[in-house]
Amino acid sequence: MKLYSGAWSTFVLDTTRNQIAETLRTAHRQYFGHYPSLSESNSWQSSLMMLANVGSYAALDDHGVLIEYQLPLASKRLDAMITGHSQDNVQQAVVVELKQWSTCKHADGANQVVTFVGGREREVNHPSAQVKGYVEYLRDVHTAFQGDKAISLSGCGFLHNYMLQGDTILTDNKFSQLVTEYPLFGNKDFEELGDYLNRIVGAGGGIEILPKIEKSAYRPSKKLMMHVADTIAGNKNYVLLDEQRVIYDKVQALVTKALAKTRKQVVIVKGGPGTGKSVIALNLMADLSRQGRVAHYATGSKSFTETLREVVGSRAGVQFKYFNTYMQASANAVDVLICDEAHRIRETSNQQYTPRDKRSNKPQLDELLHVSRVLVLFIDDLQSVRPGEIGSIGYVKNHLANRPDVDIHEYELTTQFRCGGSEAYVDWVNDTLGIMETAVPLLEKSDSFEFKICSSPQEVEDHIRSHAEQGRTARMMAGFCWPWSQPNSDGTLVNDVVVGDWQRPWNAKPDAGKLAAGIPKSSLWAYHQGGIDQVGCIYTAQGFEFDYAGVIFGLDFTYSPDEGKWIANPEHSKDTMVKRSKDYLAFAQNLYRVLLTRGMKGCYVYFMDKETERFLRSRLR
Fold it and tell me: What is the per-residue pLDDT for 24?
């Protein structure tokens, strides 16, 4: 998708007549169902006029241009791409990132700076880093930029209001390699930018290149697929054991057969916490990539997806997606779509900001099935913790039962690899929380897994920090019973979680903006070292495992000895979406089940409600 494409001469004419912004506004309305903001329209008018002026200086004429070109299977759009030939007749394209910045400041991140955007100062990618990401993404996923006849792709940043000469953080030593590869041009660099464009696309002939870019297929490059495969295969945490290997082999066999058939293949893998669902999913992802399959790994969790991208590398983002990515995707664009935590599949992919004309009543499950030849779903029915998460095994089977073009294959994982390998502990949690009756009403003391009820949250924290100091992974979590504030003006976090004299902050909010040094973004709380200084909520903890887990059990879910049952207390919850649900009790049961089963070697718990603590103690032998 693009909002504008055509000859450079036409683009210049539209710009000089002050028509370019209105043309883009109309295209935006047609595609997204609403007009862009006034600020975005104004930025188009200003920045594209500057770009047109540079092109006039460089005598660009017989060239092609794409404006607001959307990256395949991503929501990001390039500001501009100019096409043409080099002097030695090589097809070329140049990505030009346009910025209206006038100042920026230092940021701790290796590729970030701080600038004023969106109404406040925020940490954002250095323009050269942003361009590098776009260029590498296109090389990795777009066949027009792959192979022997590939279009050569480069990029630069044009900050037409910025004085780059002199002392500026943008040309600091830590960015020298980036700026060398993806140069920056400021408000005094019209001639330099014009010369740069002339060197790359000066021979013209760009119109004939545009159709190749707009019509070529999207497919991960072999280089990217091998990178993903090698990174996962080299991680000792992703080794398959026992029944994990059995199910992996069954899925591989089905994939091999299914790609030669016209019928859709759906593989359902049922498994509780710690049974290795993600391990199998990642091994499938690695080996299918190595085999040259177009394989995507999708989840419904931002924290889990962003952490996977961090581990495997940002370039692999094209293969690590979200369930709602595929609203506009073509049929069978993905050979194998692996859906981890598929219990978080929602009724539809519509969100709050989905344009009206892009909204659809099509079930999200149908979108996932439409885009894939083989759909692999890893499901734990008892990990749904929010209204709208409907991807249970029963829902999937019932929804697909009358599809004559779908074959369903169902498998189950039972061996426990978390909680010290103790299936009894997970059964005890299920029984104790009233989720289901099991054969383990009492928990025996175990040498392989430590479960301890603590007298204070400080005692829980002391255990967690002690294990972390010994090189183990450890995190502290809590029920969503305290407010969740935006950071202070200096980027530090507010101590929202308060129990008596003990106070700690939640992990950062997803839209927190600039954070102080050492504080990880919300999506990386479980992975980055600095996460140990904050309390994690269910949305940042779900999907992860740690050697040791600490849990503060809130007042939103308590045991009543008089009634002999668990009671839901939504008035103590700060989760506005969940507390309104009629099924709050079930969500609370699942929430604390998730938190209590994050640990591989131990779990430490503090109870806000003493009757609940006494009940749990009564179930320890």
Answer: 92
